[in-house]
Design a protein that fits this description.
The protein is an alpha+beta fold and 355 residues long. The radius of gyration is 20 Å and the shape is globular. Helix 5 packs across helix 6. The longest helix has 15 residues. The protein is built from 13 helices and 12 strands. Strands 3, 4, 5, 6 and 7 form a 5-stranded antiparallel β-sheet that branches. It has a 5-stranded mixed β-sheet with strand order 8-9-10-11-12. Bound molecules: zinc ion.
Length: 355
């Protein structure tokens, strides 16, 4: 879902691509190219630039970009092999160039698809979606302004150049597993980490993205994070890690892959449950896949025209003393329900959840 230029195209793509198998459908705008932006960044006053940015900053679905970030940020603009302008934080860009050069010496060619996107640009995408599709759809489809790691300028989406050809679409790129593995081996040396790990969707809020790398500056820290298999959230102690048990049960309706895709969406959604620790996810069984339940999810979201429904159950624990939350404090939730639905073309989405 890369390389999309105009907002109209982004809108269309979002309608079509909820099925991106590696991503979370609720955040597709986060993976878009910034191509449409074009405008040069206004330089911030020099006085604020003396104060360095925090290269370990955490920005995710529950942690917004710090208020003063955009004043302190120093970026460069570069043009990629496709001809798009990409904006990157200065130091991260230097580190990227070193990484890129190292990869070239191993016969691997990469370029930058997208890096920094300002909060204002994200707000513009949100406004455009709201105008065209309504607030509810916009909220579901576009990453909330202020809550995308791409705002930092430290998150880089790479694309591959294979035999001189640009490979930019997610579904094409994901096939080059060996090449990504080689790239990932080199990241820490230059102060980068892989940000959205497989199986950690409940922590990061995003599906596996081999192309989304994050600059953390310190190579020793990057190495430590990688060797322990941690997400940035876990490393910073802002997430309770641990294993999530998944029971797919048996189904004569859905393939394992179908259920895995549904679980990824569920885990992405769960990342919004701030501070909650997910213990397990269970498929509730084929008996819930019936006409009455399908009718019910379609009533919840009449425009969607779902053809498939699936129910899952989860156990999790809520954190102590959380305000502004509908969840009870420090409570062990059992059999919390999740209803997911899909059309024949699109991927799963969470339609309803609760006790
Ligand atoms: Zn990204």
């Amino acid at each position: 879902m890369k390389k999309i230029k105009a907002l109209a195209a982004i809108a269309l793509a979002a309608v079509m691509t909820a099925s991106v198998f590696t991503g979370c459908s609720g955040s597709s705008a986060d993976n878009k190219s910034t191509g449409a932006t074009g405008a040069a960044k206004a330089e911030a006053p020099d006085t604020t630039k003396s104060e360095p940015i925090d290269y370990m900053v955490l920005v995710n679905k529950t942690n917004p970009l710090p208020d003063t970030w955009e004043d302190k940020l120093e970026t460069i603009h570069t043009t990629n092999s496709i001809g798009d302008t990409v904006e990157v934080e200065k130091k991260a860009y230097d580190a990227y160039l070193n990484l890129k050069q190292d990869l070239v010496s191993h016969g691997i060619h990469v370029d930058l698809d997208s890096a920094r996107r300002s909060v204002k640009e994200q707000q513009k995408i949100m406004d455009d979606f709201t105008k065209k599709y309504g607030a509810e759809y916009a909220a579901k489809t576009v990453a909330k302004p202020g809550y995308s790691e791409h705002h930092t300028g430290l998150a880089l989406d790479l694309y591959l150049i294979i035999d001189g050809k640009d490979v930019v679409e997610n579904e094409d790129m994901i096939k080059y597993k060996k090449i990504w593995a080689e790239i990932h081996k080199k990241l820490a040396k230059y102060g980068f980490i892989l940000r959205y790990l497989e199986g950690k969707e409940h922590i990061t809020g995003y599906g596996y993205e081999p192309w989304h790398i994050r600059y953390v500056e310190n190579g020793y820290i990057a190495k430590n994070i990688k060797s322990k298999g941690l997400t940035l959230e876990e490393y910073l102690g802002k997430a309770k890690g641990g294993k999530v048990d998944i029971d797919y049960g048996t189904s004569s309706i859905y393939s394992k892959k179908d259920l895995e895709d549904a679980v990824i969406q569920l885990k992405c959604d769960f990342a919004n449950f701030e501070g909650c620790k997910l213990h397990n996810i269970r498929y509730a069984g084929d008996s819930e896949v019936n006409d009455a339940n399908l009718k019910w999810v379609n009533e919840k979201n009449p425009d969607a025209k779902y053809t498939k429904v699936a129910k899952f159950l989860t156990d999790f624990k809520s954190p102590k003393g959380k305000k502004n939350s509908t969840l009870e404090s420090n409570h062990e939730y059992k059999d919390y329900q999740w209803w997911l639905a899909r059309t024949d073309k699109d991927g799963w989405e969470v339609v309803s959840k609760g006790y």
